[in-house]
Amino acid sequence: MRFGFEKLAQDGAARAGVIHTPRGEIRTPAFMPVGTAATVKAMMPESVRATGADILLGNTYHLMLRPGAERIDRLGGLHRFMNWERPILTDSGGFQVMSLAGLRKLTEQGVTFKSHIDGSKHELTPERSMEIQRLLGSDIVMCFDECPALPASDKAVAESMRLSMRWAARSKDAFGDRPGHALFGIMQGGVTPELREESAEALKAIGFDGYAVGGLAVGEGQEAMFGVLDYATGFLPEDRPRYLMGVGKPDDIVGAVKRGIDMMDCVLPSRSGRTGQVFTRHGVVNIKNARHQDDPRPLDEACTCPACRNYSRAYLHHVFRSQEIISSMLLTWHNLHYFQEIMGEMRAAISQARFAAWEAEFHAGRAVGDIEPL
């Protein structure tokens, strides 16, 4: 079975569909929980699946450093290694290398950098990135790119984008012919329409199985991000999935889908769960606050996740304050469940041609705020 994308419905720019892979179907719009180091923190793989996730994201940079791509390959590949038999997308490592700033050297060939773990020296090139992702057994492979932090000058963004396009061509050559596996190109260009269009045209000339919008959620703010998405998705092919990298908060996700995005990922649900921040249809709850210590109600009375079904706010406040491991487990499960619930509701709304009405209800519910104290 080959990789393929099928658009099932469209309402405005919002799309609902399915990505077909040999390891299973991915319903879109799709949110991908992040399993940076071959684990979604505080979650068992079967628990992640129970939230409704069809696909996970793994991190090339972290996995190449520890435990090593060659070791994972010898042990049967990333799916077997982490006990996740459904699709996995791996990023190329470019974003993490960008964040190393003082520990890296950038050239036309690629990037040399020092490990944040032990200071050892490594080189990451388009060819090496493709090799690592092949060793991991990734179902969806991302081409190697350079992602400048914003704000930046148009000159700097243009130079970075054109380097990424040259690396995209090298990534495609190195990827080769791998039936059942997909390679996505990454559009760059900052917040400049002309550069975004130039990048999209370069990627389409190379030809990819899917297209990501990169270089956003890196400091430009939501208004600027939506401003780019208002036109950038229109530069990309209709018959390929569109992936917005590293996004985001629930309202970011809804706004992105409204503008034609099919796939997203973010560490926010799991990271926030570990720090006591909980996302609900009423808005954000900070379980660490003392107001919850005597509250017998669930986080969200309409939620069916284990945290809401079986535990009170008072208990969740207690285990968080006590730094018990179950706190991270339950709050992360709830957040991932809520994010997947949003995706399912959007898929249904798009299929029923009522996305605008659903979006209005979504924002209205959050505007009311958290449920009133007892």
Topology, please?
Elements: E1 4-11, E2 14-21, E3 24-28, E4 30-33, H1 45-50, E5 56-59, H2 60-65, H3 69-74, H4 78-82, E6 88-91, H5 94-98, E7 104-106, E8 111-114, E9 121-124, H6 126-136, E10 140-142, H7 154-175, E11 182-187, H8 193-206, E12 210-213, H9 222-232, E13 242-244, H10 250-258, E14 263-266, H11 268-274, E15 277-280, E16 283-286, H12 306-310, H13 313-321, H14 325-351, H15 355-368
Parallel strand pairs: 4-14, 5-6, 6-10, 10-11, 11-12, 12-13, 13-14
Antiparallel strand pairs: 1-2, 2-3, 7-8, 8-9, 15-16
Helix pairs in contact: 6-7, 7-8, 11-14, 13-14, 14-15
What's the N-to-C terminus distance? Answer: 55 Å
Helix content: 40-55%
Q: Could you give the count of β-strands?
A: 16
Shape: globular
Strands of the widest sheet, in order across it, are 4-14-13-12-11-10-6-5
> In terms of per-residue confidence, which ranges show pLDDT below 50 for 5 or more consecutive residues?
none
CATH architectural designation of the largest domain: Alpha-Beta Barrel
Number of structurally distinct domains = 2
Q: Specify the CATH class of the largest domain.
A: Alpha Beta
* Mean pLDDT rating: 95
Describe the overall structure.
The chain is of the alpha/beta class. Strand 8 and strand 9 form a beta hairpin. It has two domains: 4-266, Queuine tRNA-ribosyltransferase-like (TIM Barrel), CATH 3.20.20; 273-355, no CATH class. The relative contact order is 0.13. Helices cover 42% and strands 19% of the residues. The longest helix has 27 residues, at 325-351.
